């Protein structure tokens, strides 16, 4: 494995909300009573079934509670041993599943405030992503603007499988706000389960959902590119989190090939998709889904024609590698430095 | 460079195109609203008979959803994979730096100057009192 260097930025760690009741102190009186009197249960999404192996490394799985719910564990498991300068917290709590725009907005607000108090305030290395209530674009923008006043929020977080293709113009006020406030949009694996988690319908097994994430990322990248999001918001960066990386180049070959014949349908797309990806899209390292041979890895990076696309991540506490082996074999020391330090800082201007 | 007489003007009215082979090269000559254009009839992508494609306009945009449509009838779209080429310059629009098709100048000459030469008029009988479409290559 390539050796880690100190001072890196982990762009994808997952602090877990222990239970819906953990958010009660961060809800308004009204919503607190609603949660209690309606008897609302914990928001558990099927994206990460608690006992599924991928959800936590065996040595990162606590004896009680959810993996990732303890700051001390996160410090002991990643922040300290990886000698990180920063770790970006992407809470994956099922607030996106809620259909009521008011309830969703209340939960997102509580979740963001919970992240500040229970995590960001307790370790200076932690940074946060703003979880937004996409059922209402107005409320999503308001939540971005509210949280952005705290410089420790460095990104806006959305799920790769929400309600609509992400390029749709109805969502653009979110992108406008993000670009204006120097916040990249992180698109994380996972579904709000408002649509089947694959394009062909509902599968039977967890692995179908998990492997299918890559197709969802491809579909979203196509949507974002052809709808012209990056023509309208050229400074906006989007980070594909837990997307995998092995599919990027073949996907772009395919998109580019077919775009050339129907260029006139989306004439605002005035560059090859690879160029758009190079200027506006980034990908987190883990889960690294290529075979372990260094030659394969080098070819993969050659095909991307850039050493700026990949950002270091451990995907803590998900089980993507063992020990300290977060960096695949074959990365040159230069590339390690780019992936762990330079690329994250170039992507997240608020990291400082 | 030689000038080739390819047809009397009235055989190539506006909106038509003529296919021919000159020195072994497949060529098409178009009359677009009274202007004449010669183009190699071989797509630089994978060799389709490009000039058999439809003539469309050029869609451009700097603001998603707002489309400016110009050069009406001056863009030829390859019948195989839909790439667009500018009939005036031969440049492609999906990859202008790497792909272009050879464009040839074409215009009308009166028969009187055509008979004086030097012109190549292998298959066309030239009469002084007619006008002719001439392509240069
Ligand atoms: S052969 Fe003309 S576009 Fe492919």
Automatic annotation (TrEMBL), chain A:
GO MF term (any one): hydrolase activity
Per the record, the GO terms for biological process are: secondary metabolic process
Short name of one Pfam family for this protein?
A: Amidohydro_2
A GO cellular-component term linked to this record: cytoplasm
- The Amidohydrolase-related domain is annotated at 9-349
Q: Which UniProt keywords apply?
A: Hydrolase, Lyase
InterPro entries for this protein: ACMSD, Amidohydro-rel, Metal_Hydrolase
Output the PANTHER family linked to this UniProt entry. 2-AMINO-3-CARBOXYLMUCONATE-6-SEMIALDEHYDE DECARBOXYLASE (PTHR21240), ISO-OROTATE DECARBOXYLASE (EUROFUNG) (PTHR21240:SF28)
Q: What is this protein called?
A: Hydrolase
Species name: Bradyrhizobium betae
State the taxonomy lineage: Bacteria, Pseudomonadati, Pseudomonadota, Alphaproteobacteria, Hyphomicrobiales
From TrEMBL, chain B:
Q: Which UniProt keywords apply?
A: 2Fe-2S, Iron, Iron-sulfur, Metal-binding
| Source species, domain of life | Bacteria
Q: Which organism is it from?
A: Bradyrhizobium betae
InterPro entries recorded: Rieske_2Fe-2S, Rieske_2Fe-2S_sf
Q: Which GO terms describe its molecular function?
A: 2 iron, 2 sulfur cluster binding; metal ion binding
* PROSITE patterns the record matches: RIESKE
Protein name (database record) = 2Fe-2S ferredoxin
Keyword Iron-sulfur assigned: yes
Classification via Pfam families: Rieske (PF00355)
Where the record annotates domain Rieske, the positions are: 4-115
């Amino acid at each position: 494995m390539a050796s880690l260097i100190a001072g890196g930025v982990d762009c994808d760690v997952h602090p877990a909300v222990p239970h819906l009741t953990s958010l009660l102190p961060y809800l308004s009186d009204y919503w607190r009573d609603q949660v209690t009197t309606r008897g609302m249960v914990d928001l558990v999404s099927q994206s990460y079934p608690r006992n599924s192996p991928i959800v936590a490394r065996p040595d990162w799985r606590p004896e009680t509670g959810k993996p990732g719910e303890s700051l001390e564990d996160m410090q002991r498991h990643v922040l300290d041993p990886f000698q990180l300068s920063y770790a970006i917290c992407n809470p994956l709590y099922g607030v996106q599943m809620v259909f009521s725009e008011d309830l969703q907005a209340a939960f997102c607000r509580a979740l963001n405030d919970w992240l500040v108090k229970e995590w960001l305030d307790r370790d200076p290395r932690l940074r946060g992503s703003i979880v937004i209530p996409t059922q209402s674009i107005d409320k999503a923008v308001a939540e971005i603007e509210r949280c952005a006043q705290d410089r420790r929020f460095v990104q806006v977080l959305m799920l790769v499988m929400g309600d609509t293709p992400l390029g749709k113009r109805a969502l653009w006020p979110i992108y406008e706000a993000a670009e204006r406030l120097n916040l990249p949009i992180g698109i994380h694996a996972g579904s709000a389960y408002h649509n089947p988690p694959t394009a062909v319908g509902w599968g039977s097994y967890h692995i179908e959902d998990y492997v299918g994430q890559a197709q969802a990322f491809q579909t979203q990248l196509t949507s974002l590119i052809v709808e012209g999001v990056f023509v309208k918001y050229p400074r906006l960066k989007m980070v594909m989190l837990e997307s995998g990386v092995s599919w990027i180049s073949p996907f772009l070959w395919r998109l580019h090939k077919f775009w050339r014949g129907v260029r006139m349908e989306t004439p605002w797309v005035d560059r090859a998709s690879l160029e758009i990806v190079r200027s506006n899209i980034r990908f987190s390292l883990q889960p690294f889904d290529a075979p372990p041979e260094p030659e394969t890895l080098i070819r993969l990076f050659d095909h991307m024609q850039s050493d700026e696309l990949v950002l270091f991540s451990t995907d803590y506490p998900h089980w993507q590698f063992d020990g300290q082996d977060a960096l695949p074999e074959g990365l040159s020391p230069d590339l390690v430095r780019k992936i762990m330090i330079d690329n994250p800082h170039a992507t997240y201007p608020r990291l400082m | 460079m030689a000038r080739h007489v390819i047809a009397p003007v009235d055989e190539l009215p506006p909106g038509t195109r003529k296919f021919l082979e000159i020195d072994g090269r497949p060529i098409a000559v178009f009359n677009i609203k009274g202007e004449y254009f010669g183009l190699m009839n071989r797509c630089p992508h994978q060799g389709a008979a490009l000039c058999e494609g439809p003539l469309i306009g050029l869609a451009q945009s700097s603001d998603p959803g707002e489309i400016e449509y110009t050069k009406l009838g001056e863009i030829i779209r390859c019948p195989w994979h839909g790439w667009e080429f500018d009939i005036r310059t031969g440049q492609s629009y999906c990859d202008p730096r790497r792909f272009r098709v050879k464009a040839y100048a074409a215009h009308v000459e009166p028969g009187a100057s055509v008979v004086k030469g030097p012109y190549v008029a292998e298959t066309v009988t030239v009469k002084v009192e007619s006008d002719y479409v001439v392509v240069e290559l």
